[in-house]
Amino acid sequence: MKNFKIYHKINHNESSSRKLSGLGGLLILSLIILFFPSCETEFTPEPIENAEQIVVEGYIEAGEGARPTYVVLTKSLPFFDEINQETFNNIFINDAEVKVFDGENEFILTELCISELTPEQLEIASEFLGINAAENEAEFCVYIDIFQQITPEIGGRYDLTIKTGNETLTATTTIPELVPLDSLKFVPTPGEDVDTLAQLEAYVQDPAGIDNYYRYFTQINSEPMIGGIPSVTDDRLFDGQFFAFPIAKAETRDAEFNTTTYGYYLVGDTLTMRWASLDKDHFDFWNTLEFNALNQGPFSSYTRVDSNVEGGIGIWGGYATRYYTLVVEK
Asked: What total number of domains does the chain contain?
């Protein structure tokens, strides 16, 4: 790749608020029953009442700008249930005992709820969780390493244990070696170029002979940082290669779809991108979840979302991360 020109070298200088930017609470709802309408006759299946399950969403992260370790606990909902403010208020699980073991020491995570935060802390929480915490009417709670007692390390293994009521849940994750980006470059949008918009291309040297898994998130100016859909990839198609690929601007699920602007960046904005390496179990969770999210319609097939949580459903995932900041230009 001798002819490759590096356009944007990596900027690692992030403010503390950037370092706390994050994914936000996923609040995974388990899919309990399916409905496949017939093309010829209408069929309404009988309701199936499955047992309520505990849903786990937790992450431990190493690298520049790493966020504190945290876990969100909620209850699963039946597929056909109506979701309103009251439902949302009642899905969070409080007063659980949440512990992380790093192979030598065990750490207890502190339960922290939005109602306990100051306005300044709410602003940080909004970036960290990917929600507008100040305007959220629900009592949103997380279990978090608030004093940052845990020091996540590349190559580390971390065991999670959750006790709530008479139930015990366990999960294990690892933090792989980070494969950083080589460079980032803004290019004209495909088709008829739009002066005010740009597409982002990323370049990475994938290590040969090693299974690598990647995930990305984007943040525009001071907006929350969110993952793309899809946001993950493995290296089966480019193992050991110097590889270029587009990085679409992540959009919220309720964002209006516009073919002219969707996935592109507005010239003059400041982009912060979070790039992460993750292990296979963590990748499999996001890969199956995002496949389900994208595979919609009456003729789509159902894919069971992978989970690494014993005794419940969800994800306890490790990340090796790095943050990149640049101004959108052409």
From this structure: 1
pLDDT tens per residue across span 143-168: 999 889 999 999 999 999 999 999 99
With CA atoms as reference, report the closest residue to 197 among 269, 93, 138, 144: 269
Give 55 or 21, the one with higher predicted confidence: 55
Supply the DSSP string of 46-110, one letter for each residue: PP--PPP-EEEEEEEEEETTPPPPEEEEEE---TT----HHHHHTSB--S-EEEEE-SS-EEEPE
Q: Point out which residues pair with 220 in neighbouring strands.
A: 271
Domain carrying residue 260: 16-327
Mean of pLDDT values over 11-22: 38
The answer to whether 85 touches 137, Cβ cutoff 8 Å, is yes
Query: Within a domain: residue 11?
Result: no
Answer for the pair 179, 285: CB distance below 8 angstroms, yes or no: no
- pLDDT at position 26 over 90: no
Kindly state whether residue 8 falls inside one of the protein's structural domains: no
**CA gap 268, 101 in Å, rounded:** 44
Q: Is residue 149 helix, strand or coil?
A: coil
Residue 1 lies in a domain: no
Which helix (H) or strand (E) segment is 273 a member of? strand 270-277
**57-81 tens-digit pLDDT:** 999 999 988 999 999 999 998 766 6
Does residue 320 form part of some domain?
A: yes
* pLDDT value for 5: 33
